[in-house]
Amino acid sequence: MATLHDTINALASDFAHQLLAALRGASLEEIISETSAGHVRRRGPGRRPAQLAGGGGEIPTPIRGKRKAGRLARRSAEDIAKTVAKIVAVVKAHKKGINAEGIKAALKVDRRELPKPLAMALKTKKIHKKGRKRATMYFA
Questions:
Q1: How much is the mean pLDDT over the chain?
Q2: pTM for this model (two decimals)
């Protein structure tokens, strides 16, 4: 006498074989039309729905505005030292302190260019900081 487990395995195996046979007998266009018939792919909770599978149109722009794509160009030690000097000058000009967003705006640089020069300025004790995360203020 077959157990429930054996019966389920037999049914699943039969289903898989029938599904593969149906897919092998179908044309590529038929498969694509069935998989992209108005279904929207989900990307996770809180995210915008992706384009229709196999659809067209433009990819939506990021919510926070346009960003420069790709990696930053490799910077030499001299370039980083120049950026450190600029950061120190900006921080010295603000006696009450300035946050990273203020430094970025004052120097008109990409947000990805700041972490290493800021860390070097802090390490060499040209500037110091108070606060944590987004509440961090930098002082000369």
A1: 82
A2: 0.52
